[in-house]
């Protein structure tokens, strides 16, 4: 069931979900995927509200496997949004926490992301389009 939040209230709700767990648990366990999506929705909506206009966000605390991760309510319309994350190829979220004994995962090759990042993003969007239907 979707709940309606103002952007700042959604960020507060995110902290209620996030703060009780360790950083490792938050990034490694799939149980927190929805909270990660809520973080994205909160920050996106706060930016939209600051720069464009007032907005409300409709989100569920559980992953209901809908075609969208959250809905934006703006100008009397509800618009669905799907979140995707793009990492360096071969890297997974939480790698820096996953049982490492040699220190945190690092990859400071920012040039690679600058050069190849647009292609990674296009690839991720194409995967979503295939999964959820063609986009005109």
Q: In brief, what are we looking at here?
A:
By secondary structure, the protein is of the alpha+beta class.
Describe, in plain words, how this protein is organized in 3D.
- Helix 1 runs antiparallel to helix 3.
- The protein has 4 helices and 4 strands, in the order E-H-H-H-E-E-E-H.
- About 45% of the residues lie in helices and about 10% in strands.
- The protein has about 140 residues and is of the alpha+beta class.
- The chain starts with a strand and ends with a helix.
- The model has no long low-confidence stretch (mean pLDDT about 85).
- The chain has a 4-stranded antiparallel sheet.
Helix content: 40-55%
Strand content: 5-15%
Number of strands: 4
Give the low-pLDDT segments.
Answer: none
What is the helix tally? 4
Strand order of the largest sheet: 1-2-3-4
Order of helices and strands: EHHHEEEH
The general outline is: globular
Question: What class, by secondary structure content?
Answer: alpha+beta
User: How would you sum up the major sheet?
Assistant: 4 strands, antiparallel
Overall mean pLDDT? 84
Radius of gyration: 17 Å
Distance between the termini: 29 Å
